[in-house]
């Protein structure tokens, strides 16, 4: 027999919730989930997504670009990135990496906007409702027409707002999510057999760990000392 030729298999949020309850042995004989069970499942699924979204994933890492304003050091980024992983100056087709500063290092700088020049460092402040990217030093008027800031950032995963929504993640994660959701729901919907409970928790942990191992760039990593600009003319 020939293969299907398709690779678009997916599950909606409702189907994932149903699968999780079936793993728990609830409503597994063709019975429909109650409205309460579906609401509990969708709430737990959103919580699970938010917890997972706090970690870096290949599909939530994206690129952004900032147009600078002369003598302006702080820029509110919309939509708000969870983190800015790296930044670089882009000029005439060439990208030059910028140094990331810690919060205290940036705010301890005595001169942030008085002597505009070419930004060499950045600090990103991810507050609850807004995210602000700080450049140091602030850009001079002579460079803003030719230089932009490009950055790599971690975005938030989309919420589940309706039962027929798809998950904002690759289909390879579907099985791990179903079992992880079942494990989460055990507290509210306990199973009678402790051996089944242990199996659910164990398989959920195994599947999630396996997907985390896959969810990494295959490229080689190179390590070197992290030299940071101290603001007084030296790298330390």
Brief overview, please?
The chain has 236 residues and is α+β, with helices and mostly antiparallel strands. It is built from 5 helices and 8 strands, in the order H-H-E-E-E-E-E-H-E-E-E-H-H.
The averaged pLDDT comes out at: 92
Annotation, overall tally of beta strands: 8
Overall structural domain count: 2
Report the β-strand fraction as a percent range: 15-25%
Order of helical and strand elements:
HHEEEEEHEEEHH
Secondary structure layout:
Blueprint: H1 13-23, H2 35-53, E1 61-66, E2 74-76, E3 83-91, E4 94-97, E5 99-100, H3 103-107, E6 121-126, E7 131-136, E8 148-154, H4 174-185, H5 194-214
Question: What would your notes on this structure say?
Answer:
With 236 residues, the protein is of the alpha+beta class. It has two domains: 100 residues; 97 residues, no CATH class. It is built from five helices and eight strands. The strands form two sheets. Strands 1-8-3-4 form a four-stranded antiparallel beta sheet, with no helix packed on it. A four-stranded mixed beta sheet has the order 2-7-6-5, with no helix packed on it. Strand 5, helix 3 and strand 6 form a beta-alpha-beta unit. The relative contact order is 0.19. The mean pLDDT is 92.
């Amino acid at each position: 027999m020939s293969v299907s030729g398709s690779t678009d298999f997916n599950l909606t949020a409702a189907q994932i919730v149903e699968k999780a309850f079936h793993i728990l042995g609830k409503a597994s004989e063709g019975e429909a989930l109650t409205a309460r069970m579906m609401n509990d499942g969708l709430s737990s699924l959103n919580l699970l997504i938010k917890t997972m979204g706090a970690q870096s994933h290949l599909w939530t890492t994206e690129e952004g670009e900032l147009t600078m304003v002369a003598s302006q050091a702080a820029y509110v980024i919309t939509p708000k990135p969870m983190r800015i992983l790296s930044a670089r100056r882009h000029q005439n087709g060439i990208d030059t990496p910028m140094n990331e500063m810690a919060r205290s290092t940036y705010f301890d700088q005595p001169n942030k906007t008085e002597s505009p020049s070419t930004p060499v460092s950045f600090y990103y402040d991810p507050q609850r409702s807004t995210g602000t990217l700080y450049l140091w030093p602030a850009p001079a008027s002579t460079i803003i027409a030719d230089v932009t800031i490009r950055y790599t950032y971690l975005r938030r995963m989309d919420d589940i707002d309706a039962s027929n929504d798809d998950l904002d993640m690759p289909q390879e994660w579907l099985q791990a999510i179903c079992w992880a959701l079942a494990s989460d729901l055990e507290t509210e919907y306990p199973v009678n057999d402790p051996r089944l409970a242990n199996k659910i928790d164990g398989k959920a942990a195994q599947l999630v760990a396996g997907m985390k191992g896959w969810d990494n760039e295959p490229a080689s990593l190179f390590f070197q000392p992290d030299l940071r600009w101290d603001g007084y003319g030296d790298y330390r």
